[in-house]
Amino acid sequence: MDHPRRLQVLQAIVDDYVHSREPVGSQALVERHKLGVSSATVRNDMGALEDAGLIMAPHTSAGRIPTEKGYRTFVDQITSLKPLSAPERRAIRTLLEGAEDIDDVMERTVRLLAQLTHQVAVVQYPTVKATTVRHVELVRMDEHQVLVVLIPTDGRVAQRVITLGEPTSEASVLDARLRILASVTGRSVVQAIPAISAAALEAPSAERPIMLAVAEALQGLAAISSEQRMVMAGTANLANATRDFARTIGPVLEALEEQVALLRLLSEMQQDERGIAVRIGAEDASDPLVETAVVATGYGPQESAKLGVLGPTRMDYPSTMAAVRAVARYLSRVLGP
């Protein structure tokens, strides 16, 4: 929008409506916001905003409320996000850094984000393609069995017992471990598999079966981990927003329970120059999330996995965007190498 004052009026309408859920009139805008113009001028601006499809009058009310297009215009003009308060940052750091494993991290993340935003919080598990190897440990159990422990950067420790056809010594296991670490550390789990196989070709014959068995074990882990997973919290927050849905919230709850539509949506959302992706409504009226807004951002290696919040389009976008971005940064730090 190239009319600064009308944009200011739109911002004021969005701000008032988000916090009061009451249609906003011109007199209220003049009284609550320093617009520097008369009520008549504000009414003219509101008329122009309505003609542009940015606001609308619900029923016969004299006030106006934002449309999806109005929210989008409002969100697009947000150039900077207000940082979280010091207590909020401390709460994030304390909660996430106290987690015991990846599942605990994911659960704590969504609970925290739901509390900060009062919306439904969702987080995708890191994908195996984006997860790098932090450490591999081999423990010789007997001459035919070796325990393989994989510690990737996503924190999900995996272990598997491999059985060898030929007896192996403690020294061979230790030497194979060193070769494996030299070839895979810092690589993704997927890249580690061919790297170990290639290194095995140059290894002594005593170590080669061990390394090939480890590569096969990682192949199985990659296959299991390739499935997309997500966890959510704060679904009860939708109960406080039923008035924001013209239709029943049933389809929204079903979509959250099935997860497929939301996972696809998160995967398709593209971040802007602020590092945030915001979807408001949907073009397809049959979309179960048509009356919702989703604010998301990537985290972790290559930011391939996303976390975010879902709620009604009447959302405090600046605060929500700031909270999502802050939590994502802390989560990346916790899961980082």
From TrEMBL:
The keyword rRNA-binding does not apply. InterPro entries: GAF-like_dom_sf, HrcA, HrcA_C, WH-like_DNA-bd_sf, WH_DNA-bd_sf, WHTH_transcript_rep_HrcA_IDD. Residues 103-321 form the Heat-inducible transcription repressor HrcA C-terminal domain. The keyword Cell membrane does not apply. It comes from the Bacteria. Keywords: Repressor, Stress response, Transcription, Transcription regulation. GO terms for molecular function: DNA binding. Belongs to the HrcA family. NCBIfam families: hrcA. Negative regulator of class I heat shock genes (grpE-dnaK-dnaJ and groELS operons). Prevents heat-shock induction of these operons. HAMAP family: HrcA. This is Heat-inducible transcription repressor HrcA. It comes from Kocuria coralli.
